[in-house]
Amino acid sequence: MIKLHNLKKVFRTEEIDTWALREVSLEVKEGEFVAIMGPSGCGKSTLLNIMGLLDVPTGGTYLLGGRDVSQLNDTERTKLRRGTIGFVFQSFNLIDELSVYENVELPLLYMGLPARERKERVMQVLDRLAMSHRRMHFPAQLSGGQQQRVAIARAVVSNPKLILADEPTGNLDSTNSKEVMDLLCQMHEQGTTVVMVTHSQHDASFADRIVELYDGQIVQHAEL
Ligand code: ADP
Q1: Cβ of 11 below 6 Å from ligand 1
Q2: Cα(63)–Cα(8) distance, integer angstroms
Q3: Run means of pLDDT, 10 residues per run, the chain, 224 residues
Q4: How confident is the model at residue 196, as a pLDDT?
Q5: Interval between CA 185 and ligand 1 midpoint (Å)
Q6: What is the DSSP string of 153-191?
Q7: Helix crossing, 144-156 with 100-111: angle to 10°?
Q8: What is the whole-number distance in angstroms between the Cα of residue 8 and the centre of ligand 1?
Q9: Cα 22 → chain centroid
Q10: In the beta sheet, which residues pair with residue 67?
Q11: CB atoms within 10 A of CB 175
């Protein structure tokens, strides 16, 4: 599913170059659940953003589903991202002005699906996440756990092959964290590839494999 070879990322400003990723080579197989761990600032989010086609590497190669993403133009990248990846952010990233229903519907609007199919799919995923009764609510009217459930609904409504989650339980209490992890595990059991950045050993224990980053490099792989 994912093949990274000697991936590098430098953030350049006038004063300083920051090497967020020095040389990362990593393969994630279809259907695998991989947790990425490491201290703050070691490059975890940068790596996930590159995997999610939200950022571009400075060097190295990235194959997603066998396609070299550096060869794609902006339109092709956006199409590949929207058709393949569901991204879950620690801060939920919901649009405050849109209702729960409208937030979840957004990826399907981008895909150009007709209204009836959109409604069917949004209601199906909201039912599954026990959020259909809240569909007319706005994000500010929901608890953190509910907001993350909506964010996950939005990430999975297009049936992505790959879910990328950046500290999805980072802002949640233990009850809500458990719900979110249960959901990610469910997706994984249904065959979705999951890559999750986490600080939590407990959350990481649900993965097939833990990849440990330090200072922009992989320092350890651990099979679970
Ligand atoms: P982590 O997710 O492990 O906390 P990040 O990937 O966010 O680490 O950051 C890795 C390094 O890159 C850090 O030193 C961070 O300050 C730097 N960095 C991240 N994003 C930017 C940016 N947009 N501009 C400049 N430096 C950045």
Answers
A1: yes
A2: 14
A3: 97 93 96 97 96 96 94 92 90 94 95 95 90 95 90 91 93 84 91 96 95 94 76
A4: 97
A5: 28
A6: HHHHTT--SEEEEESTTTTS-HHHHHHHHHHHHHHHHTT
A7: 20
A8: 13
A9: 22
A10: 64
A11: 8
Closest CA to ligand 1's atom 15? 41
Q: Write down the pLDDT at residue 130.
A: 83
Strands 33-37, 217-223: parallel, antiparallel or unpaired by DSSP? unpaired
- Tell me which amino acid residue 213 is: L
Half-sphere exposure in the Cβ direction for 92 (13 Å, CA) = 22
Amino acid at 192: T
Query: CA-CA distance, 187 to 194, in Å (whole number)?
Result: 8
Q: How high is the pLDDT of residue 36?
A: 97
Torsion angle, CA of 109/87/30/62, rounded to 10 degrees? 100
Q: Give dist(CA 172, CA 55) in Å, integer.
A: 26
User: What pTM did the predictor assign?
Assistant: 0.92
Q: Is 85 in the pocket of ligand 1 (CB under 6 A)?
A: no
Q: Whose CA is nearest to atom 17 of ligand 1?
A: 20
Side-chain-side CA neighbours of residue 60 (13 Å) = 22
